[in-house]
Amino acid sequence: MLTYKAPLRDIKFLINDVFNFQKHYKDLDNGENADPETVDMILQSIADFAENVLMPIYQSGDAEGCHFDNGVVTTPKGFKEAYQQFVEGGWQGISYPEQYGGMNLPMSLNLIKSEIIGTANWPWSMYPGLSTGCINTLMQYGNDEQKETYLHKLVAGSWAGTMCLTEPQCGTDLGQVKSKAIPQEDGSYKLSGTKIFISSGEHDLTENIIHIVLARLPDAPEGTRGISLFIVPKFLPNAESEIGERNGVSCGSIEHKMGISSSATCVLNFDEAVGHLIGEPNKGLKAMFTFMNTARIGTGIEGLAHTELSFQNALPYAKDRRSMRTLSGVKDPEKVADAIINHADVRRMLLTQKAFAEGGRSMIYHAARYADKMSQAVVNGDEAEFEKWDDKLGFYTPIIKGFLTELGIESAKHGQQIYGGHGYIKEWGMELIARDARIATMYEGTTGIQALDLLGRKVLLQSKGKIIRDYTSNIMRWCGEYALDKDMRKFVWALTKLCAEWNTLTVRLMLIARKDREIISAASDDFLMYSGYVMMGYHWARMAAVAHEKIKNGGTESEEFYTAKIQTAEFYFDKILTRTSGHAESMVAPSESMTAMKIESFAFLD
Amino acid sequence: MLTYKAPLRDIKFLINDVFNFQKHYKDLDNGENADPETVDMILQSIADFAENVLMPIYQSGDAEGCHFDNGVVTTPKGFKEAYQQFVEGGWQGISYPEQYGGMNLPMSLNLIKSEIIGTANWPWSMYPGLSTGCINTLMQYGNDEQKETYLHKLVAGSWAGTMCLTEPQCGTDLGQVKSKAIPQEDGSYKLSGTKIFISSGEHDLTENIIHIVLARLPDAPEGTRGISLFIVPKFLPNAESEIGERNGVSCGSIEHKMGISSSATCVLNFDEAVGHLIGEPNKGLKAMFTFMNTARIGTGIEGLAHTELSFQNALPYAKDRRSMRTLSGVKDPEKVADAIINHADVRRMLLTQKAFAEGGRSMIYHAARYADKMSQAVVNGDEAEFEKWDDKLGFYTPIIKGFLTELGIESAKHGQQIYGGHGYIKEWGMELIARDARIATMYEGTTGIQALDLLGRKVLLQSKGKIIRDYTSNIMRWCGEYALDKDMRKFVWALTKLCAEWNTLTVRLMLIARKDREIISAASDDFLMYSGYVMMGYHWARMAAVAHEKIKNGGTESEEFYTAKIQTAEFYFDKILTRTSGHAESMVAPSESMTAMKIESFAFLD
Question: Which residues form the Acyl-CoA oxidase/dehydrogenase middle domain (chains A, B) (predicted)?
């Protein structure tokens, strides 16, 4: 019963009116490929595919789930056919070089593609999504032979890829990885070990699956400094990149999960599987880290996707369902009761979803421009340029991943709530969105890990607060431009106050942390959420400014569209941004209130 | 893999140290039955039953679900046997009069029983839970013949009961009920219509099921003033209360739900089913309302149950799972990494669960004393006395139901999050708790309905703010007693400030509402959550005071237990109570930020 329409009007508002992607594309090597007509065509085509091919198999795919039989994984009905269409459309390769068969469009378009297909069917989108991780790793760290052997098929989508990091004893703490890689005389390696939670680890969509695997060389140092990266194909390719012998990697089982059940989450057993080293020995973790920023933006998109889908499906129900009369007076006198969209509390939930979807999209599209630069640097083999943009993106990554996925869970909850008891019934689909959204704060680094990355690593350790000073000074400069604009006053003053507070809090935490290292962990979640709300506030203020300008300039046929942007911004500042207060107070609370309790005092059950 | 131990130490801390139930029982007609030894024995027996019989069939019951075949519903393996043991223990009747075969213990013990069995297996507990609703309705509104015919079997548990309110077109807005009751010459009625979402509507646990049904008489006024209450048994009983002919009520299907899948949620079709009027014609809604306070406390218990269960199962994992080193220094040097319970951010989640569980339990046990008084009034047929205590309970009901079920969802989320990716895997069970917890904010009146009941009905309409003035004056008096106690200073000052703010906010809302009725709906959710956090803060302060006193008096063997109470209170005040700030700011925001947007401007998708 779920439906989806790609919100192209909102997407174009951002890429044209707010961020002027055409101007940004002029500075990219491959920017001229992305002329306005091409962009429009790409967006429309991917929207058609998502709406008509992926959406109809979203709920049925969940109900059926993946099948596992003696190492073979079969995806739900329709998944293979949809994937075939995806390959035929060339969609896997839109942002990869023509040299490998790609369309050589900017990476930002690939992210927008991910958003659209992910909103229509997140678990399906994970199959090409994991391939992207594999392709990006090979693009950046593979040697010429590896690129030549694998990238053509991966970029075409006829082969798929995975990222094999997690093991039973460790996820985040990759220093505990035990999988072994034994060097062979021919320069290859034999890999043995067990990997778990491998998304798309085995399936029937492609003739081959290329695993990127973290493992240890025999003489590797302990911990994270002894991890290397390997490429391990399911079928060993010959010189013509045609599949040959089956490799020693097999799927031991698939997980039974709360959601994303049509995405195969595999236990992979490597038993003397033939692999090849990617990049330098023992530098695998560094490679993973440079790859992580974009992978985490990809997961941040999941937060947006589930917010948007839940909103789109809560809205028609709120217009149709009738219950009670509106407090300010009867709205639909000819009907037995008013549509529930008239009740302010229902509007609160809908507007929260709307504000999170459109605000989150703005945050992601802003960051997507850094991804364009990084992708260009990878193609050009310009490491310094890559690091420069990766560094810039590094501030946004934990916020987009950590904050937006938390909002995805909240939004999906609102969507269910608007349906009342029907929100709990499978047929309606709102509960599926909630179940699927739930994974996003756990994989690709939990919210706690994002929070520690933001506050501990990026704000305090790496920049001693400068990153916040720089970001807030941008906001303040922008506020300065609008300080005398009475339409914008409300936003400008609220943001200015928050910029001052954000800096003060950062300094306070820095000072406390000198004596009390635990404050960094104790405050991290509040700091992450606080940062997210302020950043989204800035994005809403910018969208409101653009909308006001459009209306003032007149001649627009879309005045209602722009008015809705301004109203949503006002809602966000009145009802959502207020959440910063609690986080601000809580983050500077003494860490002792968390650390004091003895481990054995948490419960007295015997 | 889930486990449960009834937290008897925490339960006894409340009923003995904090609330002195023995003193309270002295004022009850049936209080002398509840001497300390009996209470201990009851608690221990119900704990044994919950831990050893109900817990082991919780996860398996979810995996199997209920079966539906041509109108017959079969519960999962083990459910019937467990129910038989429940009946043999006499547990259904512990708080009902001996006249009907009950144990005649105070109703508060029945609520604690509900908590313990509900924590072990919430969906199972819904079968006896719905019977309770049916019994309470008959106790209060049934005539002597109806009581004699039905109560013996219902109190014994050999028959079960339901409450049939919701129809496809309406849940909350019962004025839209369409089911018809046609009077017959013999004084009975024939009921026709469709009821949906009927928990325990059909199952194999008992030989008969007694439905309490809302329907309209032919000449009934429109809307809520035309609803009457009927008793409609599945099998018509003869004069000896033995089952006879099958009645015209049948189960059309059961719902496929996000969770509580072992609890049958039925579509019931009434086709000229024989029923009898309960109470007066057209007064059915009033009867439902007086019954609702206790039913909603029962749902509030679900919030506590899922919080406790998630906490109990997150705790051992946090002690076992090892990842990274603690920021303040290595904790387990001999191990590959520190247990994650050492990380402050993990402690934040565990302590949030602990604070919500123990704080929520305190709120419910406080309210349980009103339930004792109401139950006594029903037995004595003293309507005025009933109304007096029902009125008092009425302030707590929407907070306990609305606020604690929201916390149940949050807590279950933390429990999953502590497990990382494993929190998403069915085997571990943490995701089941999250799925089951999700229903609690939707049924028995959504959170939005509780919020409107609190702010609109009870605070503004019925009492013009007096209810808040009264409640806060109690807190302030209590604070006055501790104002000079340096151990308590932190709690006392924070609460005093909040009491002032709570009153100010109430007055501000009252003034705004004179011109702008929509503010009541717009502010209601914030007001509910704000009220909940402050109320729970008061409970934590009281528990801290008792704990301090116990430690000061010395001679206790449980100093660590009491210290943990104080530490949890400090955590609550430092990290949770700060959430009130955002709600306070948001609730007085202009309702226009919610009402201004035109319905057609919420989305521009075409």
Answer: 163-272
